[in-house]
Amino acid sequence: MQFFGGSELSPSPPTPTGTGTENNSHMIYIFNRNGVCLLYREWIRPLHTLNFQQDHKLMFGLLFSLKSLAAKMDPTCADKGNLGVPQLPGQGCSFHSFRTNTYKLNFMETPSGIKFILVTNPGTGDLRETLKYIYNLYVEYVANNPLYTPGTPIRNRSNNTRHHTFPSLF
């Protein structure tokens, strides 16, 4: 089954490029087009400075600002609009990741406006194929689930923690 470019959905995700030992994921976020956090899961986060709602708003705001900045700086588009004006998914220039000295943020937005963010170690390579794989899982297990109400947090009945998860995916 193929949903977002690439090949058929395989049972295991693509192997990310990088240094090998640094391919550890810290956090994953999935937002809908309105900024509602559908899924948040963390694996490595030694310091919690914000509550979850503040963290989600900050992350979505960062993505909004970076998308707007990337579109404004696009050298191929004459009509750049105003900085801060929302861009439609796939409109204008986009970014895929950025790196700091402590983490790398990997980003993918689908044509429907669903945003996938994977925060990893800074030495992790290109994760675009991995994010496409996660999107394919989202489509297969969430979007195609008749019991799921679009726009609501993704929950797993067997896991009633604060972190919403796909069934046995992460």
Helical content (DSSP H or I, runs of 4+): 10-25%
End-to-end separation in angstroms reads 20 Å
Task: Determine the strand fraction and express it as a percent band.
Answer: 15-25%
Mean pLDDT: 76
Total helical elements: 2
Rg: 16 Å
The helix/strand order is EEHEEEH
Largest sheet: 5 strands, antiparallel
By oligomeric state, this entry counts as single chain
Unreliable segments (pLDDT under 50, ≥5 consecutive)? Answer: 1-10, 18-23, 159-170
Strand order of the largest sheet: 2-1-5-4-3
Key traits:
single chain; alpha+beta; five-stranded antiparallel β-sheet; 2 helices; 22% helix; globular; disordered N terminus
Structure description:
- The protein contains two helices and five strands.
- The protein is of the alpha+beta class and 170 residues long.
- The protein has a five-stranded antiparallel sheet, with helices on one face.
- Strand 4 and strand 5 (115-120) form a beta hairpin.
- The two termini are 20 Å apart.
Provide a compact summary of the structure.
By secondary structure, this protein is an alpha+beta fold. The chain has helices at residues 52-72, 128-143, and strands at 25-31, 37-42, 97-99, 104-109, 115-120.
